[in-house]
Write a structure and sequence with these properties.
Blueprint: H1 4-21, E1 27-31, E2 35-40, E3 43-48, E4 55-56, E5 64-69, E6 75-80, E7 87-92, E8 99-100, E9 108-113, E10 119-124, E11 136-141, E12 144-149, E13 157-160, E14 167-170
Antiparallel strand pairs: 1-2, 2-3, 3-4, 5-6, 6-7, 7-8, 9-10, 10-11, 11-12, 13-14
Amino acid sequence: MIPKHLTLAAALGCATALHAQGTRLLRHPAVSKDLVAFEYAGDLWVVGRNGGSARRLTATPGVETDPSFSPDGSLIAYSGTAGGNTDVYVVPAAGGDPKRLTYHPGVDRVRGWTPDGKRVVFGSERTSAPQQSYYKLWSISLEGGLPEALPMPRAFTGSFSPDGKRIAYEEISTNFTPE
């Protein structure tokens, strides 16, 4: 049997070693002119591009991921599960109250913005019944309302050209992680 004081000393030594390694698993980074947004421990954080202390933008019991800056850098769209389902939300990059944009029971994952910054682009399996076998891209206004399907029949992710006239997209995921 190992004495309790040795077990405590070993645990403290491990905690110190882990702390010395620094924060890990900063995921899904997005970069604007001034800030870097990322997911850490299920919440969204921002930090200046030159470094410094990170500031938490969200703090919910759910998971927030996939941050994407609006073209002017003032807003961050993200995928969140605060409402019990994965939906699209928007929050000011400076901080504030998030606004939920989608309410569909299927998974809605943020993919970006339209070039004018008036609509958030997201991927969803909402129309691939019955097995939710593929994603399609949609856009939704910052004012909410009904989303509009983008013209391609299948797309996992995509990005508009700067003039908004063309879209480059991946039809299926090239990731090795589930969405």
